[in-house]
Amino acid sequence: MKLTQKRIGTFVLCSALIIGAGCSEFLEEEDPSNIAPATFYTQPDHAEAAVYGIYENFRFLSDGAGIFVSNFQMLDALSGTAETETGQNSDLNNMLGFSHTGDNLLLSQWWRQLYEGVGNANLAINKIPVIPQILPENAQKWVGHAKFQRALHYFYLVRLWGDVPLITEPILDWKDPNVTAPRSSTENVYALIEADLLDAEAAGFPLTDASGLASQIAVKSLLAKVYLTMAGQPLNKGAAYYQKAAAKAKEVIDYANANPGKVALFPIYDDLHDPAKENVLEHIFMVQYAAGIANAGFQDKFLPNNTNITASGEVGTTVPTSAFLASYEAGDKRTLEKGFYFKEYFLGAGTGAATTLNRMYVYKHFDLVANGKPGSAGTGNSGLNYPLLRYADVLLIYAEAQNEAGGIDAMAYNALKAIRDRAGLVTPGMGTFSQTTFREAVLVERWHELSFEGVAWFDMVRLQKVYDPAGNKMVDFVGASLNGATLQAKHFLLPLPAADFRNNPNLTPNNPGW
Q1: Could you give the 3-state DSSP secondary structure of residue 73?
Q2: How confident is residue 35, by pLDDT bands cut at 50, 70 and 90?
Q3: pLDDT of residue 87
Q4: Does 436 fall in a domain?
Q5: What is the tens place of the pLDDT at every residue in 478-495?
Q6: How far is residue 269's CA from residue 489's CA, in Å, rounded to a whole number?
Q7: What is residue 290's DSSP assignment?
Q8: Could you give the CA distance from residue 8 to residue 119 in angstroms, rounded to a whole number?
Q9: For residues 386 and 509, what is the distance between their CA atoms, to the nearest angstrom?
């Protein structure tokens, strides 16, 4: 079951963070489509409806950001693994070439949507405990979900912009000081993220949850990723936090080993985009979509431009570079036809004659129901979920964190080997690795396994390293060349959105170099 309920009872965070000028007039207007907090949060089932609305917010990833572009593409554009076939969107082009500024639409939409989610989570956390007749255990559970989502939204904000306004109370009045909140330290933001996730971990979630809500395993997986990030840059907390990341990832792996029917790697890559396999096994946490109700806008961005091979349309604005594809090892199943990528399909909106394309395209998010295939015409509407946490990521988090905290052990080695076994690759014996060579092997594997899932950019920032496909190795971020641009230290963080920066004097100074 997917989370497809319509959002009700949420309150959009109105501040210079979101709206810029004119916020007071907005709040003074009656909005008949929005249910005010004073008239909502009055019945126990309002808690569930409000939380579903917060979960819905991450659907902004597939929302449009101008011609031929969706918001999710920003992270892939910065990774060095992607290019565009059309070149018709200047905001995407500027991200690809690291010539973006604070006026970039992709950048501003990420900021505003993330703060909308924070605002709605704050409202739920504040209001749910005082709903009349709500059972204490239900209040704890739904507040836990709101805190999980608040942590997730802030985790993206702090990794993209560093010091950001830390708002934990709902804004119900344009005169609220938080309308022009100053930036809080990265350290303080991570402290809230950790606290929220620990509360969510204790909130009574089931260990796994096929509905699309976060489970205990999802919370533990996100905590492992948060600790891994805190161990690296900019906080640089080092060995102690690598150990915390390893310990939390180990909890997930131990559960998976004891319950292979609940959490496991999928045996074949087709399962990654099988609608029947969403929210189970390898898919620990996903953004929820439903065709015809909440359509996912990913398909056409990954598909070749104007080739008439699918019912979903094709614009080809995020396609793998030839250099990145060539960096996979020979025989890697992920690069074989219809592993992670594809070159062969069918004309006539997917139902006609076979055709061979001029290059490889991304297949790991390919929706057969929407796109069509011979004997089954496509619907043109995709309801395929988008992965935010996969078990493959957890395995690689453990391998990396354990190696940094205490050196390679059997579980770390087996975690890496499991990923490579599925890809049909031979892994050198455990005794052949040093800490340095194992680190390199794990990081390279992260680039190949988690490609086009919005992961690589955040690895680049925390490691201050970039994957060099020509040399199949990690190189220093500063001075590296990506898409013809030379990376500088200022690129570790995005510039603050120009409109918000202009309208909130407390956001100054901008990030270094911008």
Answers
A1: helix
A2: low
A3: 87
A4: no
A5: 999 999 999 999 999 999
A6: 37
A7: B
A8: 14
A9: 35
